[in-house]
């Protein structure tokens, strides 16, 4: 390893990615991070430490985001082979953040010979800061923060209800650092960290959310297994028929029926200029859907809302959730706020369009963003929070802070994301449930659809690339968590405590 440190860092970064879904080999992630931290510590110069950090990040994010390539398989404007370059190009950028963490730890806390607890603590604090930056800069790319690897040991993942995702990622660095300290025969950090994490893991035996109360309304999640390539305009009737067959029939108990993002292609709203509808009728479509509902049922579905200028020309579109009742009435609409750059809009179109680049979602009109996390309220169901697809990955930005919902609905279209993307997306939704103490319902066209308890457990799922539906009583919400009250200030608090501990240890050693 010491002979070819850059190559070793590249390989260790790739190995570290195996701890995320779908492989979930989290012990390998801890070992890989421990060995990488040792290589960073042993770098002879700051430039060498930065280089080892960046190369590790390239290996890590190339493997972790390999699903990104598949997003280019459905865009006629760009060749699919471009997806391979895009996945590596994204990794080259994302690797800057591990590089910064490595450089900060080396520059401020390295000591000759062997790494110590001070080095590990500073590394952990630096990781918290750089992971938060990755999720924030240039609209943010928050995909797969390091703490997500703990979901197989869900008791540890539940620490995020107290400190949040980014701070728990710092704790993950401490866990890897404890392994490194064992290897160099320094016992203090392992003696504290390993028993504490073991106790957190065991705590899953007594920290489950309570079961739903008798008489709780039902939630029915529909997954039609309709791929992206099967959702052209000519496929509308087939898609709608598949949704209808899986939606069941209403009964005495109210149901919240949820459909995925991107499956209803015709417009549901009245009032558009006649040319926008073509041969479709929004009233006919709503009545057809309403026939599936019992008198107290509500159906939530993804759809598109159009915007027009003063000359009745289309000026924009919103990626939306629509709520319908059994009388074919629209009961509310939520517009996605955190849009995907290059997916739902093209940044710098004046520069990129002449180069032949286009956004990945079909169509010529860029989406416009909504106002942020919001709820739709319905009698019998309470307040339902909305987070469309990619929005669910942003820790601390999933709930209206002034109106805590009863449940979060997260429709998504993961058919873009190959085999690795859907389980990773589901894992991040589970982390949001834990952080906020709220159940989450995910509906996707091809999977993985799920009902997630407020403690992060999977109540029921429809597997990837399977047509099906699940129906369960709405899971119970938990009281507001510490993180839901404080938000990502917890990341700064935990990082500050780590730095203070590092300073205290270094002074004591002197």
Shape, per Cα inertia axes: globular
Number of helices: 15
Provide the structure class.
alpha/beta
Give Rg in angstroms: 24 Å
> Can you tell me the residue ranges where pLDDT is under 50 for at least 5 consecutive residues?
none
Largest sheet: 6 strands, mixed
Strands ordered across the widest β-sheet: 5-4-3-2-1-12
Count the strands? 12
Helix content: 25-40%
Termini separation comes to 32 Å
Mean pLDDT: 90
Plain-language structure description:
This protein has 510 residues and is α/β, with parallel strands linked by helices. 39% of the residues lie in helices and 14% in strands. It is built from 15 helices and 12 strands. The radius of gyration is 24 Å and the shape is globular. The mean pLDDT is 90.
Gist of the model:
The protein is α/β, with parallel strands linked by helices.
What are the key terms here?
15 helices, 6-stranded mixed sheet, 12 strands, alpha/beta, about 500 residues
Fold blueprint:
Layout: H1 5-16, H2 26-41, H3 46-64, H4 82-94, H5 96-109, H6 117-134, H7 154-157, H8 160-183, H9 188-202, E1 218-223, H10 236-246, E2 255-258, H11 282-290, E3 298-308, E4 314-325, E5 330-335, H12 349-352, E6 374-378, E7 382-386, E8 407-411, H13 421-436, E9 440-443, E10 449-452, E11 458-462, E12 468-473, H14 482-486, H15 489-509
Parallel strand pairs: 1-2, 2-3, 7-8, 8-9
Antiparallel strand pairs: 1-12, 3-4, 4-5, 6-7, 9-10, 10-11
